[in-house]
């Protein structure tokens, strides 16, 4: 009798343990997202708080007729692709370099991974200062090397405005990729590489035919997740260029924030948020499909 | 052959040096600037070492802003949120790794997808909700939102840590007379310490560094967290780089110290779920 009761109780244990997390996510992430679907069909402006009413697709029409929307979408894509590409390339190189023994490796590794702990806010600030037009050290270095004649306005020019945030973001993400790929490389059993050598594989062959296939699942998961994180992290852009000049460095998440914070047109801002959510949703489905997460390790 | 080996070694050394330089230089430049005088910072001549090192920037940063208050607020919000995240992640992570139950895949899917949802996407509905319950300009709003946003990733990471601990360890403790709760508390959690540290630090840095909610939900100067408080420096047309870099250097200290202390655990934590074993 007692045993049976205990058994019944056990059945509920996992749900009880998961309840706090699940409730938080459903109530404070799920519900707000649904609520913003509703908001996106309302005329809801904080400047006219007494005039909240249903206005159909007006917010979406306004959003899609915004001539800058496509620039912002394009920037978002450039941002993600360029940043993730270089983070990966440099992170992979770093991991390969660290996948060997040398003196002082522990200390080197700690220092090399430090950027990961720094906030987007501080990175934005630091790179804004490094690239400052008049007394920034980058312009000074480029001028001393004779690569440019006059100081470049990195943040104020429409042509260059994406460069500083992108460089900052790459700097921030290289260690993360380095950590992940290094861990994957070190999980390759030594005898696998040894036996490849015994079978007469050259270093290049071992690298492409043995090591790469071995770390590919990790790399796929890391890359796919990284795309989302980079897309979702507009802090560095906000601090360096604030999306300007003339939206030339603006991306979708930052646009959503600016609508919420500066224009106070909550209906329109919610519509922009929904557009962003759809982009993420499509990507998330693709991600789950590509990784078939249960097999690839549940990151 | 020897020449080739030497060249490989040389190339590795050069590349390592370049990486090190690229990593350190921005930090160096930040800290360096904070010790320069105003005139030196604004002069077109660039010095790689301060001509007359001064701590004036630190003094003015603390005097002219309520920087000490910002630090207190950040610490308060960050510590409470990360502890909440940790507890929730341990409970849920344990359930996900040790039990078979209905809807497990669905629940796992919810967490996997919700770790991709950025805070900023819900900023408008959350602002409305918080104003309805009177939490605007209240640090509790930040604690709630930071907890929510960090739970999914931390819980998934925590569950992969639990999976690495053999169930036999718990069973042995139970044979020795512990109940299930005791066996987890006294046997499993101590073994998991690296994972727990990693998850805590992950949540800590996430909360310590968050910017947008802090700007949106907090209006009073004396309730601002560090990033939002420092925005006042940045948004002025003429940024006072001396004060700014001094404040930034102070902000860097806790995260850097913590990172160095637990670096190994973080690496283990980040990679726990990603690498197939």
TrEMBL record, chain A:
Membrane-crossing residue ranges in chain numbering: 12-34, 77-98, 110-131, 163-185, 266-288
Entry-linked InterPro entries: MetI-like, MetI-like_sf
GO annotation terms (biological process): transmembrane transport
Source superkingdom: Bacteria
Domain ABC transmembrane type-1: 73-287
Pfam families per the UniProt record, alphabetical: BPD_transp_1 (PF00528)
Gene Ontology cellular component annotations, sorted alphabetically: plasma membrane
Hydrolase is among the record's keywords: no
Major site of localization recorded for this protein: membrane
Coiled-coil blocks: none
Topology in the lipid bilayer: Multi-pass membrane protein
Record keywords, A-Z: Cell membrane, Membrane, Sugar transport, Transmembrane, Transmembrane helix, Transport
Compartmental location: Cell membrane
Protein family membership: Belongs to the binding-protein-dependent transport system permease family.
Protein name per UniProt: Multiple sugar transport system permease protein
Organism, scientific name: Harryflintia acetispora
Automatic annotation (TrEMBL), chain B:
GO biological process: transmembrane transport
Localization, UniProt: Cell membrane
Superkingdom as given in the UniProt entry: Bacteria
Boundaries of every ABC transmembrane type-1 domain copy: 71-262
SUPFAM superfamilies: MetI-like
Transmembrane residue ranges: 12-31, 75-94, 106-130, 142-162, 183-204, 241-262
Keyword Cell membrane appears in the UniProt entry: yes
Gene Ontology CC: one annotated term: plasma membrane
Family the entry assigns: Belongs to the binding-protein-dependent transport system permease family.
Protein name: Multiple sugar transport system permease protein
């Amino acid at each position: 009798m007692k045993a049976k009761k205990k058994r019944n109780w056990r059945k509920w244990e996992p749900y009880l343990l998961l309840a706090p997390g699940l409730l938080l996510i459903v109530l404070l992430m799920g519900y707000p997202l649904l609520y913003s679907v509703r908001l996106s069909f309302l005329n809801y402006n904080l400047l006219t708080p007494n005039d909240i009413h249903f206005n159909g697709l007006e917010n979406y029409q306004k959003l899609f007729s915004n001539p800058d929307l496509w620039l912002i979408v394009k920037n978002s894509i450039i941002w993600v692709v360029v940043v993730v590409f270089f983070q990966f390339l440099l992170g992979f190189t770093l991991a390969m370099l660290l996948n060997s023994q040398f003196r002082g490796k522990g200390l080197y590794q700690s220092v090399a991974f430090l950027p990961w702990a720094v906030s987007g806010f501080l990175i934005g600030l630091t790179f804004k200062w490094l690239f400052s037009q008049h007394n920034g050290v980058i312009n000074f270095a480029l001028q001393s090397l004779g690569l440019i004649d006059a100081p470049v306005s990195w943040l104020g020019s429409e042509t260059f405005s994406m460069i500083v945030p992108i460089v900052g973001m790459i700097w921030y993400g290289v260690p993360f990729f380095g950590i992940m790929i290094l861990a994957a490389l070190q999980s390759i059993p030594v005898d696998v590489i040894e036996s490849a050598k015994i079978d007469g594989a050259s270093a290049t062959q071992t690298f492409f035919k043995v090591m790469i296939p071995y770390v590919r699942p990790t790399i796929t998961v890391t890359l796919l997740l990284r795309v989302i994180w980079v897309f979702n992290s507009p802090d560095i852009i906000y601090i360096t260029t604030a999306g300007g000049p003339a939206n030339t460095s603006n991306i979708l998440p930052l646009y959503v924030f600016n609508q919420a914070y500066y224009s106070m047109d909550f209906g329109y801002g919610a519509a922009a948020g929904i557009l962003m959510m759809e982009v993420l949703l499509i990507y998330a489905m693709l991600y789950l499909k590509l990784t078939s997460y249960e097999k690839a390790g549940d990151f | 052959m020897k020449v080739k080996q030497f060249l490989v070694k040389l190339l590795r050394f050069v590349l390592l040096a370049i990486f090190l330089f690229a990593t350190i230089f921005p930090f160096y430049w930040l800290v360096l600037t904070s010790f320069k005088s105003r005139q030196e910072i604004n002069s077109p001549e660039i010095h790689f070492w301060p001509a007359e090192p001064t701590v004036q920037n630190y003094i003015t940063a603390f005097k002219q802003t309520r920087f000490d208050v910002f630090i207190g607020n950040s610490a308060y919000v960050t510590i409470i949120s990360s502890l909440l995240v940790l507890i929730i992640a341990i409970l849920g992570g344990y359930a996900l790794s040790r039990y078979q139950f209905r809807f497990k895949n669905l629940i796992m899917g919810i967490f996997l997808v919700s770790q991709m949802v950025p805070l900023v996407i819900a900023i408008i509905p959350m602002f409305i909700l918080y104003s309805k319950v009177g939490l605007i300009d209240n640090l509790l709003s930040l604690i709630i939102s930071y907890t929510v946003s960090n739970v999914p990733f931390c819980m998934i990471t925590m569950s992969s840590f639990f999976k690495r601990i053999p169930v036999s360890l718990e069973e042995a403790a139970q044979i020795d007379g512990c109940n299930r709760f005791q066996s987890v508390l006294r046997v499993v959690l101590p073994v998991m310490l690296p994972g727990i540290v990693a998850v805590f630090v992950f949540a800590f840095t996430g909360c310590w560094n968050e910017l947008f909610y802090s700007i949106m939900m907090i209006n009073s100067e004396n309730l601002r967290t560090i990033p939002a408080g420092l925005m006042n420096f940045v948004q002025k047309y003429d940024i006072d780089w001396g004060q700014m870099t001094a404040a930034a250097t102070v902000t860097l200290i806790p995260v850097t110290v913590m990172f160095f202390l637990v670096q190994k655990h973080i690496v283990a934590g980040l990679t726990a779920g990603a690498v197939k074993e």
